[in-house]
Write a structure and sequence with these properties.
With 75 residues, this protein is α+β, with helices and mostly antiparallel strands. Helix content is 39%, strand content 21%. It is built from 1 helix and 4 strands. It has a 4-stranded antiparallel beta sheet with strand order 1-2-3-4, with helices on one face. The radius of gyration is 13 Å and the shape is globular.
Length: 75
Amino acid sequence: MELPKFILGDNTDFPNAIYVIHTDFPRFIINLENDEVEWMEEFDEHDQRELEHQTEGLIQEATDFYDREVSRYDE
């Protein structure tokens, strides 16, 4: 099965939280309510340095994805 790069998620147990799931490496879930990131990968020291360079861009991509999806509901 081919998954999209980003998926929106929510949960009624956390009514204010909006989640964006990144399905490519490095996989993560970001809660846009508080910008908390949960990584779904384990990283070695080399990966950790690379991840630090990518993190800001990945989070921006997740936020842009959310904004795009929400704007489509308003159309």
